[in-house]
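Researcher: We are triaging several targets before committing to wet-lab work. For this one, the compound of interest is zinc ion. I'm pasting the protein sequence and the ligand SMILES. What I need is the predicted three-dimensional arrangement of the protein with the ligand bound, expressed as C-alpha cells, so it can go straight into our comparison scripts without reformatting.
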Amino acid sequence: MIFLPWQRPALPPHLDYSAADRLELLNGIPVCSGLGMADKERLLDLADEFLARKNMEGVQGMVLTPRIQWMIALQACLPILHLGLKVLNDLKSVVVYQGDFIPPWQKTDEIGVVHPVGPHQGESWQLGTVVLSWDAVEEDMKGEGEYPTNVIIHEIAHQLDKGGGGMPELPWTMSRASWMRDFSMAFITMEKRHKKGKTTPLDPYALESAAEFFAVACEAFFVAPGYLQEVLPAVYGQLVGYFRWEPN
Ligand SMILES: [Zn+2]
C-alpha cells in the first residue's frame, strides 16, 4: 500500500504495544528516562511514527524483537524530538547486526595502498541507511565508558549532517559563521591537547573530521548534557540552538 507523505501508516500489530508498555520501555533507557512527561509523550509518538515509516531489519542472524525495535526507534528520535521526523525524510532503513561488523569496502591511502576496514559499531550512509551493532547499543545503555557515548545518536547525527561537513541545516535564526567558529575552535583546542597526550573532553575519535566531531558532540549533548555544557560551553550552546531544546 502506498501512503501519501501526510498520511501516517499504522504500526504493524506486533509493534503496537500498549501505552503503559511503551512508557515502561522508554523509562528503561537511561538517555530517555530523565525527560519530562510532555517530552516523553512526544518521543513515544515520534518513535511510533518512525517504526511505521522506516524499515528496520536484522542481518547475519540478528533477530529484531519488537522490544529491540522500540528501543532503537526511541533513541533515534531523541535528537529530533523538537525538529520532527521530517528532518529524517532521507533515512529509509536501519540495519542491525548483533556485534561489530566489517563494512563491505576498503580504504585506499594517499599512496594508493588498499587497506581492509576494521570492525565498526555503526555506519551512516548518505543513501539513507543507518547500520548499527546491537551489542554497541547495549554497551552504551550501561553508561560505563570513559566518554558519554550512544551509537544510535551518533549515526542519526550523521544523517542530519547531510553535507557531511559537521554542520546540519541551521534555522535562519542561527549564524553559520558562529557555528563554524565555535566548532572549529573546539576542534583545534582538543586536537592540540590530544597531540600533547593530554585528556580530551570528547572521545578523540571526534578528531577524525568535522563530521565526526559533530556526531560525537551530539552523543555527549544527549547522554551527558551537563558535562558537555561544562567542558565545551560554546558547542553546547550551538547544539541547544539547533536541536531547539536543552536536555540538561
Ligand atoms: Zn561517525
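Researcher: Any quick observations?
Model: Strands lie at 55-58, 93-97, 106-108, 114-116, 122-125, 129-133.
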